[in-house]
């Protein structure tokens, strides 16, 4: 039993204080274990009110309009500046406008709802209330392989979901985040690049948290609320994602992108899978053997050839079979 996850569920489901004795009885552990677990949850970003007589209460952290009061205290190398809007067409468009007007790196636009959310390859992204929909302005001095940053951001999100909620999140090449092999988050990277000069990059992130998904998407997508069995406080997750992005983005600034690739491998759901690859040049099947240091996915095809894929869609078919 995952004590942290089970204790978190109890606190989320109870809006009032829960005594340490009741928590210990419910989980079949000692009071000392409860105390240690509470401290671990606090370190993961949850704000827990501790009362000497009443016990523990999870502070409701789902009001994104109040996000600035928490972001200001983030211990990150990159300073984040958040702009909250209730409804907009796309946070990507607002963040791009800010960037063109000189907004600093770390500017974040977060919305409750998107009317015209978009994903990779021009696809529509359904972004109703309850999710995390935001875009970040980055101004890297140089990035050799832009799509590698996309993989790294996906890894940061998977790490945060795993760390904050105690559930297993994985990444599917190139940048889908999965839970139970269903998509829980996606990334869209756009930017202004001229020759070798990067003016700015806009990283768009969408995470299905407490939002209700359309019926037609339930076979391929999932929300964290459905995984946890209860609504999830969004602010601790949001803050942890920002911290993880800051950490992995610094690897690029320090010319250590190979370390980001290693972290992607640790969370990969694609490697050693038999997959179908769809590119603008056609489709083929094979085994996803590895990821290159430049972010390319190396496939061993059914004909025995090894192919590097830099852009396209990958569909997981089954575990590796003998070719």
TrEMBL record:
- Residue ranges annotated for the BPL/LPL catalytic domain, each copy included: 72-253
GO molecular-function annotation terms? ATP binding; biotin--[biotin carboxyl-carrier protein] ligase activity
Q: Which Gene3D superfamilies match?
A: 2.30.30.100, Bira Bifunctional Protein, Domain 2 (3.30.930.10), Winged helix-like DNA-binding domain superfamily/Winged helix DNA-binding domain (1.10.10.10)
Q: Which InterPro entries does the entry mention?
A: aa-tRNA-synth_II/BPL/LPL, Bifunct_BirA, Biotin_CoA_COase_ligase, BPL_C, BPL_LPL_catalytic, HTH_11, Transcriptional_repressor_C, WH-like_DNA-bd_sf
Q: Which residues cross the membrane?
A: none
Q: Name one GO cellular component term.
A: cytoplasm
Entry keywords, A to Z: ATP-binding, Ligase, Nucleotide-binding
Q: Which domain of life is it from?
A: Archaea
The biological process GO terms on file are:
regulation of DNA-templated transcription
EC number(s): the record gives 6.3.4.15
Pfam families noted in UniProt = BPL_C (PF02237), BPL_LplA_LipB (PF03099), HTH_11 (PF08279)
HAMAP family, alphabetically? Bifunct_BirA (MF_00978)
Q: What is this protein called?
A: Biotin--[acetyl-CoA-carboxylase] ligase
Q: Which organism is it from?
A: Ignisphaera aggregans
Instruction: Tell me the classification of the organism that encodes this protein.
Output: Archaea, Thermoproteota, Thermoprotei, Desulfurococcales, Desulfurococcaceae
């Amino acid at each position: 039993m995952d004590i942290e996850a089970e204790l978190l569920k109890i606190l989320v489901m109870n809006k009032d204080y829960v005594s340490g004795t009741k928590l210990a009885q419910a989980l079949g552990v000692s009071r000392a274990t409860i105390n240690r677990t509470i401290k671990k949850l606090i370190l993961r970003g949850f704000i827990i009110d501790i009362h000497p007589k009443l016990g523990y209460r999870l502070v409701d952290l789902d009001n994104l309009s109040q996000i600035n009061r928490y972001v200001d205290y983030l211990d990150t190398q990159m300073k984040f500046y958040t702009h909250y809007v209730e409804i907009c067409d796309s946070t990507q468009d607002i963040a791009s406008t800010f960037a063109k007007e000189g907004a600093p790196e770390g500017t974040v636009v977060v919305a409750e709802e998107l009317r015209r959310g978009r994903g990779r390859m021009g696809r529509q992204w359904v972004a109703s209330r309850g999710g995390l929909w935001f875009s970040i302005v980055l101004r890297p001095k140089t990035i050799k392989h832009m799509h590698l940053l996309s993989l790294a951001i996906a890894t940061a999100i998977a790490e945060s979901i795993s760390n904050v909620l105690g559930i297993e999140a994985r990444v599917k090449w190139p940048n889908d985040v999965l839970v139970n092999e269903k998509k829980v988050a996606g990334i869209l990277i756009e930017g202004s690049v001229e020759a070798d000069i990067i003016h700015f990059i806009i990283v768009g992130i969408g995470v299905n948290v407490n939002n209700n998904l359309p019926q037609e998407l339930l076979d391929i997508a999932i929300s964290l609320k459905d995984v946890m069995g209860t609504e999830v406080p969004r602010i601790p997750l949001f803050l942890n994602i920002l911290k993880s992005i800051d950490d992995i983005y610094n690897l690029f600034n320090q010319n250590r992108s190979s370390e980001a690739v290693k972290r992607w491998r640790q969370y990969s759901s694609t490697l050693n899978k038999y997959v179908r690859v769809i590119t603008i040049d056609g489709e083929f099947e094979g085994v996803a053997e590895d990821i290159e240091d430049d972010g390319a996915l190396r496939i061993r095809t059914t004909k025995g050839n090894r192919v590097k894929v830099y852009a396209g869609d990958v569909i997981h078919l089954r575990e590796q079979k003998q070719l």
